[in-house]
Design a protein that fits this description.
- By secondary structure, the chain is α+β, with helices and mostly antiparallel strands.
- It has a 5-stranded mixed beta barrel with strand order 1-3-4-6-5.
């Protein structure tokens, strides 16, 4: 009977050891699974960061292009109004307006400028029939641009619109709310000043 009991005791001991071995292997498999999961999440975070930086770069480029377009659209007239040295300056009495332009006689005010029976000025809210305006003539042409503070401000109206549009992109696309408000405030101030002075 003793001989019979001993083997059964050994069997019980061996059966108790086997689950321990299995648990160790099991824990190793869990660790391996955890490492695979961690690498996947790292790749996911990298792709999210790349998309975020790509979006910021795209929105930043759009905002810069909008501002450049605003400056370019304004500089065509602003250069004549702001850089008046050596240019013909005088007044024009608007006598007739068409769909896009107005015309009238030109009276010189600067030295070397000659009177003209007819010069052309762009039709806009800053030019009305029957009124007289101080103007600057574009070089080698009969095209006039309104001068003075009102002319300077009105020449930069396209930039004011660009500032408002860029503020939406900066605040919404780039998430820079404070910078967006600064751009919007600058645009509103420029547009308001231009339309008040005209």
């Amino acid at each position: 009977m003793l001989a019979t009991a001993a083997p059964s005791h050994r069997r019980r001991g061996s059966s108790r050891k086997n689950p321990a071995k299995g648990s160790v292997k099991g824990s190793g498999s869990v660790k391996g699974y955890g490492s695979v999961k961690g690498s996947g999440s790292a790749k996911g975070s990298d792709s999210v960061a790349a998309l975020r930086w790509g979006r910021l770069a795209a929105m930043g480029t759009v905002a810069v292009l909008i501002l450049i377009a605003g400056v370019w659209g304004s500089w065509g007239s602003a250069q004549h109004v702001m850089l008046t040295k050596g240019r013909e300056q005088g007044t024009v009495e608007v006598t007739r307006c068409g769909e896009e332009t107005c015309v009238g006689p030109y009276t010189p005010l600067s030295a070397g400028s000659t009177a003209r029976a007819r010069v052309v000025i762009e039709k806009s809210v800053a030019v009305r029939k029957g009124r007289t305006y101080t103007v600057v003539l574009k070089p080698d042409s009969d095209e006039a641009v309104r001068s003075g503070p009102a002319g300077v401000l009105f020449a930069w109206v396209p930039l004011g619109g660009a500032l408002l549009l860029a503020s939406v992109v900066v605040a919404g696309g780039l998430g820079r709310t404070r910078a967006g408000w600064v751009l919007a405030g600058s645009g509103v101030a420029l547009l308001t000043a231009a339309f008040v002075t005209i």
